[in-house]
Amino acid sequence: MRHIFHHHHHHHRFHPGPEGRRGGGSPSRRDGESRFSERRFMRGRKLSAEGMQLLILSLIAEQPRHGYEIIRAVEELSQGLYVPSPGVIYPALSYLEDAGLAEAQTDGNRRSYSPTEAGRAHLADAQEAVEALRRAIGRAGDRFDEMRRSEGDDGRHKRPFSETRMALRAALFDLREAPPEVRERAGEILRRTVAELRGLQDKD
């Protein structure tokens, strides 16, 4: 199998394969070491660029998802170890679109993504990589969960605030290409919300 997912200048990019064709192939084994290993796709608590690309493609193949749903799916898969920001997810989705592996359907102000026929073919070709990647993320999440529980913190008291903050960031990203009047209404909502939150601070 040819190598399609590349790491380039530390960006979450999807690049053409060695033959110059878009999406030309998939990760393979080299030098006696599995190219689907945890070290390949994990960089500490973060995914490598090619790991993120492959994971996103596999998640939107399960069902069409918009950006925030992808963020939540990664968070659940890693048991809270890794919560990618919208600034990581949306550029990666754009790159997958440019590579002809993903397509978007617009629903109101949201864009829901699913793989193209070419994207599904690449996933089938990279099935071993997908399975290894998910195992790596799952193992890392298990270790994180064990450590968190041993310290007596399961994170539940922080979850509502964290989820709301992430949903807000994703919603703002979804609105970045909305018509001016929609963005103006969003700005008014944010200004009112900020004023109410500051009012809570004043009461304390």
Word description of this protein:
It is built from eight helices and four strands. It has 204 residues and is mainly alpha-helical. The chain has a domain at 38-153: Arc Repressor Mutant, subunit A (Orthogonal Bundle), CATH 1.10.10. Helix 2 (49-62) crosses helix 4, helix 2 (49-62) packs across helix 6 (127-150) and helix 3 packs across helix 4 (86-98). The longest helix is centred in the last third of the chain and has 24 residues, at 127-150. The protein starts with 37 loop residues before the first helix and ends with a helix. The model is unreliable at 1-37 (pLDDT under 50).
CATH class of the domain at 38-153: Mainly Alpha
CATH superfamily of the domain at 38-153: Winged helix-like DNA-binding domain superfamily/Winged helix DNA-binding domain
Widest β-sheet, arrangement of strands: 1-2
Classify the beta-strand content into a percent band. 5-15%
Q: Which architecture of the domain at 38-153 does the CATH hierarchy give at level 2?
A: Orthogonal Bundle
Task: Work out the helicity level.
Answer: 55-70%
* Mean pLDDT across every amino acid position: 74
Radius of gyration: 19 Å
State the total count of DSSP E strands.
4
Spans of at least 5 consecutive residues whose pLDDT stays below 50 are 1-37
Quickly give the structural class: mainly alpha
N-to-C span:
61 Å
- Might you state the CATH topology name of the domain at 38-153? Arc Repressor Mutant, subunit A
Specify the number of helices.
8
String of helices and strands: HEEHHHEEHHHH
Largest sheet: 2 strands, antiparallel
- The backbone outline, from C-alpha atoms, is flat
Protein name: PadR family transcriptional regulator
Pfam family, one: PadR
Region (Disordered): 1-40
Domain Transcription regulator PadR N-terminal: 56-124
